[in-house]
Amino acid sequence: MSEHNSFPENFIWGTATSSYQIEGAADVGGKGPSVWDTFSHTPGKIKDNDNGDIACNHYYLWPQDVALMKELGINAYRFSISWPRIFPTGSESKPNQFGLDFYSKLIDALLENDIIPYTTLNHWDIPQGLEDAGGWPKRKIVDEFVKYSYHITHHLGDRVKHWITHNEPWCVSYLGYIEGRKPPGLIHNWAKSLATAHHLLLSHGIAIPEIRNNSKHSEVGITLNLNTAVPASGSIYDKDACRFYDGQFNRLYLDPLYKKEYPEDVFEDLKARGLVNDSDCNFIKDNDLNIISRHTDFLGVNYYNRAVIRNEDVDQELNSPWEVELGPKTDFGWEIYPSGIYDLLMRLKTEYAINNIYITENGCSFKDGPNSKGEVEDERRIEYHHSHIKEIKRAIYDGVPCQGYFAWSLMDNFEWGQGFSQRFGLAWVDFKTLKRIPKASYHWYKKFISTNGQEES
Ligand code: IFM
Predict the structure, then answer these.
(1) CB 305 within 8 A of CB 227
(2) Closest ligand 1 atom, residue 332 Cα
């Protein structure tokens, strides 16, 4: 790269999705119920009581989705495998061949169209049977994940060469056990939340050699949702709240993976506040951290926004006035802050010396729909992606080893607790007819990546 106006040769340009958000066919082909089937069918959990029974119907419409990708010109596609399609209750000893065949056909079609599959093993929709047996807080699930990883890579590892063990462990651990916004919907249960984080990381570490063994010359990594956190003011209260936030959101995952240790301040804080005690933390066994910190080939980074942290526990009379100016927001209410991705990438390079990074998700929710001509003019989405990609390029020129970018998402889909009300897609989906309509952002991304992101300097 001699000029600062293009991306490294062989840079990966992709889009991402996940199984529960797009597939539908909730009980087809021997698939068992996932925790998301249960959660979304529990009244009041999902906006408008939506569920993923049909979603984008990708299970049946995948040939047209592969055509949509081909037309877009991406060279990679990140998707996830529905664990209960392969092990309906989780505890079977043999995989469900019908489930494997579905992914096998999809992978063949991708490769025939020169689209490299990047496959996530766990994007949250674990078999309900494993949840009933105790879920992530119980160490037993680690063996089940390793078994599942073994069988998937045994069957698909000849063709898939890029593996992501877990997507966003924080969402499972924190949103599932502290805020209750994701399955199993518990609140304020720090003991289970920490054990969940640990077992997700441990299962990642144990699965790495199994995956490498079955899928020769492959790369294996994990995807974390990370952000840049700043205090709302220079007060000691906001700074301290920001330290804790960063600890439980970013460092709780990065430190064990890359420094072989947990952030002590997070555990000390929780103990001081009476939220956990010593015996709650005895899920960490000798050697676990050696396993968790096994070398990975890449880190997948999902970045959406910055976090501005205000200490709400302190009497606001004692705190300093809010000092940070917030940027505009998406329709989800998330702040648009492109330079946060630059700051994050620089931190990953300097503080964690990470050797290879993919941006496995970045995107925004805007509701823009078809106009009278049937076209979707989502200029704000174009601006969002463009401004973030420019910051990634700046980080690459400042030495960050970033090898690829996956826009979230290929198409509008089931946005978890928000149901179908939040739209992240480059293609509009009419959830009545299931028609996909490429948005202006799709056409922009297509043109942008066709020149490897080259721009007038
Ligand atoms: O839709 C989700 C995705 O499943 C995980 N990362 C964040 C996206 C937007 O909320």
Answers:
(1) yes
(2) 10
168 labelled catalytic: yes
Q: Which domains does the chain have, with CATH numbers?
A: 12-450 (3.20.20.80)
Closest residue to atom 9 of ligand 1, CA basis? 415
Residues with CB under 6 A from ligand 1: 18, 21, 168, 302, 361, 408, 415, 424
Distance separating alpha carbons of residues 61 and 118, to the nearest angstrom: 20
The ranges of the chain with pLDDT < 50 are 1-2
How close is the Cα of 362 to the center of ligand 1, in Å? Answer: 9
- Cβ neighbours of residue 149 under 8 Å, at least 6 residues apart? 121, 165, 207, 210, 211
Q: Rounded CA gap, 457 and 4, in Å?
A: 8
Q: Give 102-148 pLDDT, tens digit per residue.
A: 999 999 999 999 999 999 999 999 999 999 999 999 999 999 999 99
Which atom of ligand 1 lies nearest, measured to the CA of 363?
A: 9
pLDDT computed for residue 271 by the predictor: 97
The structure tokens listed for 16 are 């991402």
How far is residue 213's CA from residue 165's CA, in Å, rounded to a whole number? 15
One-letter amino acid of 343:
D
Give the per-residue pLDDT at 3. 54
Three-state secondary structure readout of the chain: CCCCCCCCCCCEEEEECCHHHHCCCCCCCCCCCEHHHHHHCCCCCCHHHCCCCCCCCHHHHHHHHHHHHHHHCCCEEEEECCHHHHCCCCCCCCCCHHHHHHHHHHHHHHHHCCCEEEEEEECCCCEHHHHHCCCCCCCHHHHHHHHHHHHHHHHHCCCCCEEEEEECHHHHHHHHHCECCCCCCCECCHHHHHHHHHHHHHHHHHHHHHHHHHCCCCEEEEEEECCCEEECCCCHHHHHHHHHHHHHHHHHHHHHHHHCCCCHHHHHHHHHCCCCCHHHHCCCCCCHHHHHCCCCCEEEEECCCCEEECCCCCCCCCCCCCCCCCCCECCCCCECCCHHHHHHHHHHHHHHCCCCEEEEECCCCCCCCCCCCCCCCCHHHHHHHHHHHHHHHHHHHCCCCEEEEEEECCECCCCHHHCCCCCCCCEEECCCCCCEEECHHHHHHHHHHHCCCCCCC
